[in-house]
Write a structure and sequence with these properties.
about 425 residues; seven-stranded mixed beta sheet; binds flavin-adenine dinucleotide; about 25% strand; eight-stranded mixed beta sheet; 12 helices; alpha/beta; globular
Length: about 425
């Protein structure tokens, strides 16, 4: 069965389009204009950055190659997972004590900040802040999660530790012996959130343009001229927010991450009886598998379930079978539930699984590499980009300003990405076979 309202794409049907809030009113850039800031990319990072700058009275132009939310932001699982994979000590080791402390503080407040934004700007995006269950798929993962939870609780989070019975009670899944519960987590309609940020940015005076891919940028005196096929924006500052869909606009930027794929399905709405046995309190859940299984409800109580995929076509290399097998593993009670839609999208995974803030030239900033944790963290990055673009010193930011450092051999290894999903799935199964679970 398909969902007639959802959007056709190259990779199937993106469920979110059938239930999204109104798209912002954007035109194609067809003239030469000036601005204080030009933002490239119309996902969560770009729209929230444009909003923040326009709110401060700046003249902002945003250029999106397709439509607002076309990239990962309109395909996302929409889970607000306000936590990194590293402990606060690991973060401090990587970025230094002072920056680490700012990063930890920002991280702890990231979910509340997102839900507060949604309320402040009146964004209609089905927000539910009921908590996030982070489940261990094997004994080794349980040990890591225990260490992670303990380390973050020492610096102020309120994570609880749940045994098998507690995990099953809160999630409805019999598949896990242990989980962390993050009370501040939750979920949103990702496309509605992106469109909501875009509409709010327009309300504050930003100009947003769709179907306006940036083809090149050149320095003109102290400014940058950013050119599309039919127009240009000249501004002292350019902010690149193109994440996993980055092209060759800035040299080697796309070599700083691996453009992995995430695939999702939407079931038909669950009956009242099934809803009592699957995520009964509408929490979100994501597990520790390499091929990560994650799920949450949409507002009509369809279950959205996802895992790692191979290409822009969700079906490549057994992707749909992998999704269905994952759904049965986590929620055996949904084995016969009809599937309404499947789709795929790109995520930008950096080697240390943390986003990067770059300033590759004067007047150029870039924020990308959310490594699958973008719903809350794109807003953290956007606020950082706004702060830096408006003149704040690097010593006040939660991310270090990094050089654009290409991953060695990335142009070769990224060709192997389609094989990553089957390989990760195999290793997850080996965890079980080798008795690690
Ligand atoms: C299927 C899937 C499930 C996910 N689930 C979750 C989840 O549950 N929780 C979570 O935290 N994260 C999740 N993520 C990740 C999260 O959605 C992303 O981290 C986040 O949306 C990234 O937002 P962004 O604005 O940085 O990039 P994007 O939304 O990808 O936007 C980048 C935009 O840049 C545009 N662009 C590129 N080049 C140009 C150019 N030259 N000119 C103009 N525009 C250009 C693209 O068209 C694109 O629209 C998921 C991602 C996917 C794909």
């Amino acid at each position: 069965m398909t969902n007639p309202g959802s959007k056709e794409s190259t990779n199937g049907r993106i469920h979110w389009y059938s239930t999204a809030g109104a798209a912002p009113d954007c035109s194609v850039l067809a003239s030469e204009i000036d601005a204080d800031f030009v933002v490239v990319g119309g996902g969560l990072t770009g729209t929230r950055t444009a909003l923040g700058l326009a709110e401060q009275g700046a003249k902002v132009a945003l250029l999106e190659a397709r439509e607002i939310g076309w990239g990962a932001s309109g395909r996302s699982g929409g889970q607000c997972n306000p936590m990194w994979r590293a402990t606060p000590d690991d973060l401090a080791q990587r970025v230094g004590d002072a920056c680490g402390a700012r990063l930890v503080e920002t991280t702890i407040g990231s979910a509340d900040a997102l839900f507060r934004d949604i309320e402040t700007y009146g964004i209609d995006c089905d927000p539910e802040q009921n908590g996030w269950v982070q489940a261990a798929h094997c004994g080794k993962a349980q040990n890591s999660l225990e260490r992670l939870g303990e380390a973050w609780n020492k610096v102020g989070t309120n994570i609880s530790f749940q045994d098998r019975a507690q995990t099953q009670a809160i999630s409805g899944s019999p598949a896990y012996a242990f989980s962390l519960f993050h009370p501040n987590g939750g979920h949103v309609h990702p496309l509605s959130l992106t469109r909501g940020f875009a509409r709010t940015a327009i309300k504050f005076g930003a100009q947003l343009f769709e179907n306006s891919p940036v083809l090149g940028m050149t320095r003109v005196g102290s400014k940058w001229k950013v050119a599309t096929a039919n127009g240009s924006v000249t501004a002292p500052q350019v902010i690149l927010t193109t994440n996993a869909y980055s092209d060759d606009l800035w040299p080697k930027l796309r070599q700083t991450f691996y453009p992995l794929v995430s695939i999702s399905l939407a079931t038909a709405p669950l009956s009242d009886n099934l809803q009592k046995t699957v995520l009964p309190n509408a929490v979100t859940i994501a597990d520790s598998r390499r091929a990560i299984y994650y799920s949450r409800y949409d507002r009509d109580r369809r279950l959205i379930f996802g895992c790692v995929g191979s290409t822009e076509n969700a079906a490549t290399l057994g992707g749909i079978q992998r999704l269905k097998r994952g759904l049965r593993t986590v929620f055996p009670q949904l084995a016969d539930q009809p599937i309404e839609a499947t789709w795929a999208g790109r995520i930008a995974v950096t080697p240390e699984m943390m986003p990067h803030l770059h300033e590759p030239d004067s007047g150029v900033l870039a924020g990308l590499g959310f490594s699958g944790r973008g719903i809350a963290m794109t807003s953290v990055m956007a606020r950082t980009l706004v702060k830096k673009a408006l003149g704040a010193g690097d010593e006040t930011l939660p991310f270090p300003v990094l050089p654009v450092r290409p991953i060695p051999f990335q142009p070769v290894t990224r060709r192997l990405i389609p094989l990553a999903a089957p390989a990760m799935t195999l290793r997850d199964r080996l965890d079980a076979v080798l008795g690690r679970s």
